[in-house]
Amino acid sequence: MGRSIEQACVRCSLLRPDPSQRDRLTEIRDNLLDRIAEAQREGWLGEVEGLEISLAGAEDKLAQLDGGLKPAVIHLGLPSFGRIAGRLSSP
Fold it and tell me: How many CB atoms sit inside 10 A of residue 46's CB?
């Protein structure tokens, strides 16, 4: 039961993974790959589809963690002082 709960969590777009859990998330991804291969061998097409959705979620969470390690600059579009000062002065 624990694994299915974990799979449901990796599918959740609201989940923000904890960097300390990266190894566990990698383990979940690897397990999903093994289960997809087994389901394909056995012809369990419905199971393959569900597992692939979980796999995409796990890979997305890993990408979030990897992206979170790199500082990102976000331009907020706020005016600079020069623009503000230019608007306040009158000719």
Answer: 8
